[in-house]
């Protein structure tokens, strides 16, 4: 994604656009491990999961989770879903390449 969006912008903005994609990998991974996975896959109501169930990935281990993937280790399932959590805002970032400040980008990503 970084190379693709880096090739679509003017030469003066290549580094900043590539930084958006690289930053997203770390930032979204951190948010996902702290509360995102729990909010998405914790037991709760039909819209939101329990944000405290898997807080800081507590209880996510090598044993499969029978609710989501009975034969896949829970850690692998969590990482697979993390890939989608990273790629979604990375795709969106191409829509506003060269048009948004980095601080606004971080806020948007956090809220997304």
Keywords:
two-stranded antiparallel ribbon; 4 helices; 58% helix; 6% strand
Topology:
Layout: H1 2-8, H2 14-41, E1 64-65, E2 69-73, H3 74-93, H4 102-111
Antiparallel strand pairs: 1-2
Helix pairs in contact: 1-2, 2-3, 2-4
How does this model look, in words?
- The mean pLDDT is 92.
- Helix 2 runs parallel beside helix 4.
- Strands 1-2 form a two-stranded antiparallel ribbon.
- The radius of gyration is 16 Å and the shape is elongated.
- The longest helix is centred in the first third of the chain and has 28 residues.
- 58% of the residues lie in helices and 6% in strands.
- It has 112 residues and is mainly α.
State the end-to-end distance. Answer: 18 Å
Total beta strands: 2
Count of DSSP-assigned helices: 4
What radius of gyration results from the CA coordinates? Answer: 16 Å
**Secondary structure category:** mainly alpha
Strand order of the largest sheet: 1-2
Bin the strand percentage. Answer: 5-15%
What kind of sheet is the major sheet?
2 strands, antiparallel
> Which parts are unreliable, with pLDDT below 50 for 5 consecutive residues or more?
none
| Average pLDDT, all residues | 92
């Amino acid at each position: 994604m970084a190379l693709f969006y880096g090739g679509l912008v003017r030469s003066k903005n290549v580094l900043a656009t590539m930084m958006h994609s690289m930053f997203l990998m770390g930032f979204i991974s951190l948010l996902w491990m702290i509360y995102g996975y729990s909010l998405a896959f914790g037991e709760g109501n039909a819209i939101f999961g329990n944000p405290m169930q898997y807080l800081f990935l507590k209880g996510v281990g090598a044993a499969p989770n029978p609710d989501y993937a009975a034969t896949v280790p829970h850690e692998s399932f969590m990482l697979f879903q993390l890939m989608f959590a990273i790629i979604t805002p990375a795709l969106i970032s191409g829509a506003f390449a060269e048009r948004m400040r980095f601080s606004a980008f971080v806020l948007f990503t956090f809220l997304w």
